[in-house]
Amino acid sequence: MEPQRLSLLVAALAGCLLPARGCVICDPKVVEELSSLETDYLPGHLEAKHHKDVMKRVKQAVKDFQDLPIDEDSYMGVVDEATLEKASWSLLKDLKRITDSDVKGELFVDELFWTLRLAKDTFASYAAQFQKEVFCPNKCGLMLQPLIWCSTCQKQVHSCRKSRSCGERKVKVHQMEDMILDCELNWHKVSQGLTDYSFYRVWKNNSETLMAKGQEPTLTKTMVSPKDAGTYRCELGTVQSTPATIIHFHVTVLPKRIVEETPSPNTETQDETAPGEVTLDRPQTSATLQSQSPGPEKVLRHRLVGLLIGAIVVLIAGVAWSPHRTPPPRSSCRFPLPFPVPHPVLGAGAEAEAEQEQRGQEPSRARGARGPGCCRDPKQGKSLGSQGPDPSSFRPRCGSPSQPPGAPFLSPTQPPPPSDLGGLVPLHPHL
């Protein structure tokens, strides 16, 4: 058994000889709630002759909270402030639940003592958790921990003594970089009676030189050199003669880091230098390179703008090369003609002229002809032309619904044909 646990066990056994008070009743809020239960709740929920006996049993049950087996792993007769507050809050919550239920008589008494038994079990679990996790958490050195003795409800500082030295640490640092020695441990913030951190340089002859002292738990030395390699010692003092923590640091200074330098693209500066002079450009840092290179969003935006400009250029070129003159409207007549129609541009062939001569007509130089159905004389019921088959055998499909039946088809761009054109109607006013 460790020395601090042995001394604590002796103190706990000595406390058993004193009047028992119990850890939970050390909280003033619990004492106040029990007094309110006696003066405010009992008069209206229990007969007056039972008040004194019930309250005597209640106070004894609360004091019995400390009546737990002494064990270094579960309960040593002490708790810290946080554990006492958790146990007290649990008991006060259960008492309030009983008073809010407005239960009376014998049922109230049974409910009250059953609640006190559960509260004692809850306190035992909290005490065991404290003993395993919170009691003297330091693995080395000296910790001054404030504790509450359940037998006397007194708060005292307990000395948790472990091994004097907290070990050695190896530190490696490159030349021209910063060396940081950290002396803080996780239990330093909850310990009491601590003073200052002191850092010493330990030489080969075991002599020491004080380098820093204060409340800061770290020592920082900038731009170390090979002469800074060696042994350092950190010591955390206490109000007692024994230090709380001692840590040794073995520092090794490594060669300077090799950093690849990229040549600067600035050629103007090189041109301006005088002959024989050399200008060393500062290597660009990663932040500078990142700021010069465009981001993915900018690259995507530039590509989209380029595609949009290209589409606009293609559209303008297509409109510029399209024909400026719309073709003349075509007739809606869709039926075969009884005679060959010469090409409107190339003119009539030899066969067309010969056929016209045989019919006793002078060869016409008109380029094209209308269908007989579209050029029918409404009075005579026949075509203006005297040649060709009977136009009544043709069924024209021309004109619009607004044209009267038998009316000649007129293009919006054509003048009305003369009354006697030899049976031929020019297709275009310019021909």
Write up what this structure looks like:
By secondary structure, the protein is of the alpha+beta class. The protein contains 9 helices and 12 strands. The strands form 4 sheets. It has a 5-stranded mixed sheet, with no helix packed on it. A 3-stranded antiparallel sheet has the order 1-2-3. Strands 5-8 form a two-stranded antiparallel ribbon. A hairpin with a 6-residue loop joins strand 9 (230-238) and strand 10. Helix 3 (51-63) runs parallel beside helix 5 and helix 4 packs antiparallel against helix 5 (105-133). The model is unreliable at 3-20, 267-283, 285-291, 365-389, 391-403, 409-413, 419-425 and 427-431 (pLDDT under 50).
Summarize the main sheet. Answer: 5 strands, mixed
**Could you estimate the helical fraction of the residues in percent?**
25-40%
- In total, the number of strands is 12
Distance between the termini: 130 Å
* Overall 3D shape: flat
